[in-house]
Amino acid sequence: MAEKIVRAMAGSFILVSILMAYFVNLHWLWLGVFVGANLVPVKPLVEE
Question: What pTM, to 2 d.p., does this model score?
Fold first, then answer.
């Protein structure tokens, strides 16, 4: 359950960063990069 919540929140942040990059400034894409990079270690930690 917690993994689904984390992934849903991360997906929301990535979508918001894409919208902000389109409408405000391209530097908002860095938010999506950092959120995506933080999702990488989530999968192995949850399976243990």
Answer: 0.75
